[in-house]
Amino acid sequence: MLRSILGATTATALALAGAVTLAAAPAAAAPTAAAPVPFCPPAGEMPGIGNVPAYTDSNVAVFAGGDYLATGSSAESEGLLLVQGDAVFDKTNGGVFNVGAVGVGSGIVPPGGSTMLAVGGDLTVAPTTSVHVGANVDGGGAVAAGGAATGAFDLYGATLTVDLGRAAAMAPNEDFQSVVDDTSTTLGALPATGTTSIAFGRVTFTGTPGDAMQVFDVDGADLASTFEVFFEAIPADVPILINVTGDTMLFAPNYFGLNGERVDAFSSPNFGNAASRILWNFPAASSVALLGSSQFMGSVLAPNASIEVTASTNGRMHVGGDLTYSGVGNEHHNYPWSGGGSLGCGGGFSAAKVVTGGGASLVPDDTVFTLAYGYELDGRQVTGTLSLRADGTVANGPQGLPDGTVVHLTEVDLPAVPGVQWGPATISPDVVTIAAGEVAHVTVTNTANTNAPSAVGGFSVAKALGGEATALVPGDTEYTVQYRYELDGETVTGTLTVRADGVAVDGPQGLPVGTVVEFTEIDLPEIDGVEWGTPVFSPETVTIADGASTLVTVTNTATDAPVVPTPIDPTPETPGDDGTPGDGSGLASTGVQAVLPALLAVLLVAAGITALVVRRRRTA
């Protein structure tokens, strides 16, 4: 079987998948994590067309390496729709376009709550169109967009996330283009095992006995002239591969027969089995048109082509260029190719998060947890991660892994959630052995405890002095620092008293993280011989950090105050009768009182001298 041929190539490419990081708010209520059906349909037991989802398949059903357009009156695309470019849903007359799970189809759908529509670029839904994702599936279908998403969606409880970037939106299939390229090249190199004949508008592929895959070659130009397809002498249950050569292909078949039975009618009991066995490979084509309004049977692989489809398709549709569905009521029904690999249902695993414990309500739905996986492939170790949302959205790991691959799972880098302390994670199972046709579901349970410290912090203030007059400042001198911050929309103020000795004083310590505190110093103390400079705060403001108390230092510069001389009284004092300064009455002498005795003495001396002179003159 080709499963063994393609298994290593496909799994290697898918193993390059990175973590899915969902960032935008959900468009609807969060889904409930539900374990998907753990198997794909067994080989040879593919269901016919119906309206009840019955099997789980996480592989890519439809891939457009360019842009995707649903227009005309096209109606549905069953399975995972992966678009590397932009996606536009614009029905000519408006209405609903179903993705993931459809009204009538194979019933082979992605797990409930998982991504069913992933777009690397922008996602646009026209005003008269509505896209429904995951209808009739428990948990609905999630949508991931690398760019913007506009328009009407109904996700049945799952999430819409936008602005992820191409790689994250497409993960774990961001490298799917290389998977398509490699698979087509590998298949195209296989030699034909049967014969091809064309006559009268009919192409007949005649097989050879045995249990090996039946391989046919056909020229695209010759095939374009036919409208009936017959497969004859094909061994039971084996895959059928048709390698189509040529650059341009227009093909509008309206009849498919397998070993004498028409199998493209819904009434055929082998409708599903026939669709799942046939694969059309266009390794060199740049343009393919699948026209008409009938049921086109089989998967399509065209790594370099842009394809326009007006028929309904049944199988996988993996296209490297643009993909347009523009028919009248045409649908895509998801039938994995029985040859396996990236086109098959394959084996793989998915995972979802469950949060329990007293602090579970504190964990936002969009909180992302990281699940690491590792396994051995072709003798080398492959590792990767999945991003699991707290709301239980299912994330798909690599699909199409070889049978028997053992995958080991661990949780790393638990997210920080205010008020929550995480208990040990429980991964069930923590080791997965891949089995063909099965998608193992892993549940990762985390217990959120509420005994963790709250997301609060605080600050403290200390005094520092500088300047030449610092020695004049006693160590117990007190200073008043005022603080201010906003809390719950109100301004809160308070003061702290700090001392010149530099001992730090705590301010409020239970402030919410992010609170901004401002400071000023008021009422500087008066100290003889000291003049204060402008206070300097370091830091000037504080933004509260979780569990931290920020120290603020306020520095004051003390300089010598200028000396002011004391005025001197020029009037001497006269002793009083008791020997004390004054006039004897105990009162201070005035200037006039002090001068009179001296003046009197001078006058008496002068009078004496005059009298003496007169006396001498008389004697002579």
TrEMBL record:
<dbReference type="Pfam" id="PF19407">
    <property type="entry name" value="DUF5979"/>
</dbReference>
<keyword id="KW-0732">Signal</keyword>
<keyword id="KW-0812">Transmembrane</keyword>
<dbReference type="InterPro" id="IPR046022">
    <property type="entry name" value="DUF5979"/>
</dbReference>
<feature type="signal peptide">
    <location>
        <begin position="1"/>
        <end position="29"/>
    </location>
</feature>
<protein>
    <submittedName>
        <fullName>Choice-of-anchor A domain-containing protein</fullName>
    </submittedName>
</protein>
<feature type="domain" description="DUF5979">
    <location>
        <begin position="459"/>
        <end position="559"/>
    </location>
</feature>
<feature type="region of interest" description="Disordered">
    <location>
        <begin position="560"/>
        <end position="588"/>
    </location>
</feature>
<keyword id="KW-0472">Membrane</keyword>
<dbReference type="Pfam" id="PF20597">
    <property type="entry name" value="pAdhesive_15"/>
</dbReference>
<feature type="compositionally biased region" description="Pro residues">
    <location>
        <begin position="564"/>
        <end position="573"/>
    </location>
</feature>
<feature type="transmembrane region" description="Helical">
    <location>
        <begin position="594"/>
        <end position="614"/>
    </location>
</feature>
<dbReference type="InterPro" id="IPR026588">
    <property type="entry name" value="Choice_anch_A"/>
</dbReference>
<keyword id="KW-1133">Transmembrane helix</keyword>
<feature type="domain" description="DUF5979">
    <location>
        <begin position="349"/>
        <end position="447"/>
    </location>
</feature>
<feature type="domain" description="Choice-of-anchor A">
    <location>
        <begin position="62"/>
        <end position="315"/>
    </location>
</feature>
